[in-house]
Amino acid sequence: MHIPVLSHRLRLAAGAAAALLLAACSSPAPEQAAAPASKVEPAVPKAAAVTLYTTREPGLIQPLLDAFSRETGVAVDTVFVRDGLPERLRAEGERSPADVLMTVDTGNLLDLVENGHTQAIESAALDAAIPAGLRDANGHWYALSLRDRVLYADKDLALESFAYEDLAKPEWKGRVCIRAGQHPYNTSLFAAMVAHAGEAATEEWLRGVKANLARAAAGGDREVARDILGGICDIGIANAYYVGRMKHSEEGSEQRAWGDAIKVIRPVFASAADGGTHVNISGAAVARHAKNRAGAVRLLEYLVSDAAQSLYAQANYEYPVKPGVALDPVVASFGELKIDPLPLAEVVRYRKRASELVDRVGFDQ
Ligand SMILES: [Fe+2]
């Protein structure tokens, strides 16, 4: 009898699929989820797993890693390191299992390079996908997504364009909201201002912005939108991806109301002849003591593929580092991103000076 045999097989297949699904759901570690799959398909040889150390939120990055494993058959052993990535690498030394290091903020990434935790790689695919200013000339680090620092403005405000310098203009007195000046998102922006306008002009500018604040420089980026809705301020500086998150929040939710209260304008540096919008990055590097260097490069190359860049854009609302990738509709509504052409490595050089200026003008006091 063919039919009972067939149905028995189907039941077995369904059972195996359910077990796989359970394994995938119950464990955030993809290597565990992938293990039963090798039993189902023993003919496919398994490539060596890649070990990823990442400071990124698991929910944001896991879909990208899953897609990589599905496409290449290479499992990713992910270690989420919320704090103290450099300390951990230092403690592990040559024994470190890390193949790829992934983090946000150019400064954090360059700290890893400067402390000898990365190694140089060469990849034509990475060089072709990532503009030169957004990666290390020597192959030690690569930006994977962009986080533009933009103006949130009351949606009813008659305002079409904006320069970061405008934040200090007297017309905005008592109308500006921003998070702490010492937060890396702001020190990065202020460092870019130092690079463009010089230290004295940046100090003057920071005093002007401080004088225009509607409330203390504190809270998070989303609170800028919250306080615009609450009538506390009219404009503020914050990262663009939060608008994607807020505007995609459930209808009727608090965050949706915050997102719907604002419009986004991408400021430029008036001090620069060809000034664009300030971006920070998420990025990655191959670890100094990588045991699976080839796999590490393969993962990085996957993360700048059209498919992965589209996932960044659609799921995280970050801006793809690779030109021409489809954007989330909310992000697309902000128009094209013209990136400040100043190389990120140059911006990072002024980070410490920017931090000192924040203290000198008492920005956070
Ligand atoms: Fe953030």
Question: How would you sum up this structure, described in words?
Answer:
The chain is of the alpha/beta class and 365 residues long. The chain has two domains: 50-146 and 280-326, Periplasmic binding protein-like II (D-Maltodextrin-Binding Protein, domain 2), CATH 3.40.190; 147-277 and 346-360, 3-Layer(aba) Sandwich (D-Maltodextrin-Binding Protein, domain 2). The chain is built from 16 helices and ten strands. Strands 1, 2, 3, 4, 5, 6, 7, 8, 9 and 10 form a ten-stranded mixed sheet that branches. Helix 3 links the parallel strand 1 (47-54) and strand 2. Helix 1 packs antiparallel against helix 2 (30-40), helix 7 (184-197) crosses helix 8 and helix 9 crosses helix 11. 45% of the residues are buried. Bound molecules: fe (ii) ion.
| CATH homologous superfamily caption of the largest domain | Periplasmic binding protein-like II
Enumerate the spans where pLDDT stays under 50 for 5 or more consecutive residues: 1-44
Name the hetero compounds present.
Answer: fe (ii) ion
| Fraction of residues in β-strands | 15-25%
Number of extended strands: 10
| SSE topology string | HHEHEHEHEHEEHHHEHHEEHHEHHH
**Spatial extent as radius of gyration:** 23 Å
Helix-strand category: alpha/beta
Percent of residues in helices comes to 40-55%
- The 3D shape can be described as globular
Counting DSSP H or I runs of 4 or more residues, the number of helices is 16
Under the CATH scheme, the architecture of the largest domain is 3-Layer(aba) Sandwich
Q: Please indicate the count of domains.
A: 2
